[in-house]
Design a protein that fits this description.
A hairpin with a 5-residue loop joins strand 2 and strand 3. The strands form 4 sheets. This protein has a 7-stranded mixed β-sheet. Strands 14-13-15-16-17 form a 5-stranded parallel β-sheet. A 3-stranded antiparallel β-sheet has the order 1-2-3, covered by helices on one side. It is α/β, with parallel strands linked by helices. The protein contains 11 helices and 17 strands.
Amino acid sequence: RALRSGGTHHETIEDEKLGHLFTTVTPLLDKHGDPTGYIHVAHDLTEQKNLENQLQRAQRMENLGTLTSGIAHDFNNLLGGMLGYAKLAKTHAGVKERVLKDIETIEDCAHRATELTRQLLSYSRKDKPIMRTLTLDKTIRQVLRIIERTMGESIEVSAVLEDDLLSVNADEGQIHHAILNLCINARDAMPGGGRITIKAKNETLAAAVPVVDLIEDRENKTVIGKGEIAVGNYVHITVSDTGSGIDHEIAEKIFDPFFTTKGENEGTGLGLAIIASTIEKHGGYIIVESRLGEGASFHLYLPEAGQSEASASAVEEETSASGTENIMVVDDESVILSLIGDALKDAGYNLQYASSGAEAVSIINNNPGQTDLVIMDYAMPVMDGEKACEKISGLDPEIAVIIISGYNCEGKVRELVDRGADGFLQKPFSPEQLQRTVRNALDRKKSTRADK
């Protein structure tokens, strides 16, 4: 084309073997302007395009994480109201047994929805696991009881668990969900029936295993890895099936959020993305091995807990949570304002309300000495919890402040608590948790004044 037109021709070529090329063809002309040949220059842009694609993918994942965390935060506000009022309804005198069972069903559904929002926050990195030191044999047996009742007669389920498994530092609920989700995926890969096998054993790696973003063929077997497995002691959990296996062509996508090979309304595609995120946050690793037509095996490596690590499980205080102090509740969600107010009125406190940080600051400024404690949402319009907390402390440092949020106590929320907030509650919380946190914050403030 360049020779025929007498001008320079540019072309982009994308080829599976050649890669991404940008070519330029320039004719060589004699003194009469006739072409005698041409110069063909090809620039290999494959690496650059790969980097651009990786950057775009990272940006999409970041945007998706932000969207996911925002949705989960809003759900936590709604679930906080549902769970709180269900709890309060159970305490009312004269509740009939049938109505009590209905309320408990509502509570159960809300708790399951709360677990889903935790998974979404965990995926989006806005929430961290609640860790404690435990052994996983009990967790795996709980999963077995569930899948044995739900898999159907065409699926055979078996387990091989080594005695004296090492302790790990883990969020039991998240690990339970990860193993259960792998079993459900295995079942879906065997529509005609088959076998699921769960194994757990202790394993010591004397040398690191480099599997960072590994996707390769090994003797007709697809191997997919995330992370480099470091030297150390691990609990190695394997979930295997005899299903259809994973096609090498889609191997690199299986951990992508919302990627699924299932039909419409058969799955969200978040399962493996959340599992990979969960294992990563536990300091662990995941490797997948699969042969087409012969099934797949998911290997989870969870590091042994340090000998000095203590259990993070909390012991609830049994002290009285009632009082008569003046408390201001600040939240832009009316259902949360009402819930907190009703729960604290039942405990004897005097309540006042504000729908924004700016309104709270104005009320305290115009009524000095009339507020003992402020319960404040971190994320609010007009003036957020961080700025409002600073202004309230400037007006009256004797006022205790409790921060509430749909996110975990991390990042900026953690900084705010470290700088002087007197407590933190993650939504959704129960009336009992709220009352204890309020009482503890007020008592600590009184103790600090007495020491001075």
